[in-house]
User: Fold Membrane protein from Vibrio galatheae.
Amino acid sequence: MTCPYCKDNWFWQKIGRCKRCMDQLTVLSVLCWIVWWWLFKDNPNSIESIALLMAGFAFNGLLALHLWMRFIIIPWQNRNKKK
Assistant:
């Protein structure tokens, strides 16, 4: 990755700061759910369906963590540093 945050080694210093990561997670999440809906919604017990469900929830969870950090935690920390 080319941004300075993604070159950092610590997870909590990266999360919520890289727009490229958030864009990739959004695309992966949307594609995963679309593929699952079109191909595997009729047979949710197949291994492929379960794998796509797990991937979709993982992408959504990581995206939610990124957005939570970007719009809630980081602005809150910045406000507290100014005081």
